[in-house]
Write a sequence for this structure.
């Protein structure tokens, strides 16, 4: 199953689409998103949502069952080819109703730039639950010196043995 991932850098920033992960369930999707999308850039929070429930990604997927008025989270693409960022919520009783409400509230020029997802499908991971970012310790790359003498001695001994073995077989 594919899960769309949205990352928030700081408390004041909107959640912005940063990619997706493949995972069998929400818990694994959260773990994979932390590993894949929460390591390199500053991250305060990640949201994950099943791709099949993010309406507008590929057209008219089923947004899941709607039981009366439901809260929908809306993401808008600010510029062509850019990422979708969280811009607000709407309430509607169907996928089409949510798309129409999102278009009225946030559509501006291009209604195709909107994604809507039922809010209860979004799983959140915050910096209070996991430790995002940091750098992997790469100190091993900066070794001051290497003790190569034992290795060089072993290579020389091996080469001598090979020469002696070749002579023993009648080679030159």
């Amino acid at each position: 199953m594919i899960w769309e991932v949205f990352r928030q850098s700081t408390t004041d920033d909107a959640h912005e689409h940063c990619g997706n992960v493949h995972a069998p369930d929400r818990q694994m999707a959260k773990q994979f998103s932390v590993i894949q999308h929460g390591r390199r850039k500053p991250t305060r929070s990640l949201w994950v949502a099943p791709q099949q429930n993010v309406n507008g990604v590929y057209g008219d997927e089923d947004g899941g069952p709607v039981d009366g008025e439901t809260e929908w989270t809306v993401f808008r693409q600010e510029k062509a080819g850019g990422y979708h960022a969280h811009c607000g919520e709407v309430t509607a009783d169907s996928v089409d109703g949510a798309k129409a409400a999102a278009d009225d509230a946030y559509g501006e020029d291009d209604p195709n730039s909107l994604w809507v997802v039922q809010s209860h499908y979004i799983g959140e991971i915050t910096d209070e639950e996991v430790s995002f970012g940091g750098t992997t310790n790469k100190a091993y790359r900066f070794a001051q010196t290497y003790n190569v003498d034992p290795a060089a001695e072993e290579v020389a001994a091996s080469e001598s043995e090979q020469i002696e073995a070749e002579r023993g077989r009648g080679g030159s």
About this structure: The CA atoms of residues 66 and 109 lie 28 Å apart. Confidence is low (pLDDT under 50) at residues 57-61.
